[in-house]
Amino acid sequence: MVENNRSYKKAARYAIAYNKLLKMIRDGLYPEGSKLPSEPSLAEQLGISRSTLRQALGLLQEDGILEAKKGIGNFVRKTLNEDNVGMERMENPFYKGCIDTIDNVEIKMEIEASTEHTDRIFNRNTSVVLAIYRYYKEKDTIRGSCFSHVATDFDYIKSIDLNNHNEVLDFLENKIYEYGLSSTLEIRMVSATENIKEANKGNVSRYYQMIAESISDNEGNIIAYNKYYIPFERAVFKVFRKRKD
């Protein structure tokens, strides 16, 4: 019997190896973030050939359990917190899509006159807009970034001290989702331009998952437009779906 160009017997071997490795990971033998033994060592430990092991490792990588770092080895990926899973929720999408644990967010902000570009974004002239970069870090390493344009002609913005970056950051990360009524997301893969590379120093990814987010208030006015960038290898998206009765 042949299935996907593999014999049933051989498929059973790599499936068994997959399950054994998965159990080791779930039992804590290889915790999140840890490196697996070398392929020769692991193949000997499991009593299988290296080709069978590679098939099992490949499936674990496809399923988001392992991450292969070229020239270094296989690592157990950090799992997404279930509270952060679900792109259907109106919350900051960066934390839902990035597999890394962010422990610091730096912000750089400028106040700019509106342009034709921002007029198109907001579908109106806002006179002045906020141009804001956010840098998402884990242990001082940038794991992703966001560039935002925020309108200044809605009531809530008047309650924010724009000279206080912590207050502005809290608004962008949290309170804007309480104030806003709805948001739309567009997710697509983009090449790493010079601007993206500059904002994500330390990352060598050639491609990024870009999440373009438009947030509207209860009158339907767009109040913020965010572009989040996550290195392609560090991005995972999950959406909760329910059968329509």
UniProtKB/TrEMBL annotation:
Keywords: DNA-binding, Transcription, Transcription regulation
Molecular-function GO term, any one: DNA-binding transcription factor activity
Cited InterPro entries: Bact_HTH_transcr_reg, Tscrpt_reg_HTH_GntR, WH-like_DNA-bd_sf, WH_DNA-bd_sf
Organism domain of life: Bacteria
Pfam families, sorted: GntR
Record bears the keyword rRNA-binding: no
Any single GO BP term: negative regulation of DNA-templated transcription
Domain HTH gntR-type: 11-79
Keyword Transferase recorded: no
Protein name, entry field: GntR family transcriptional regulator
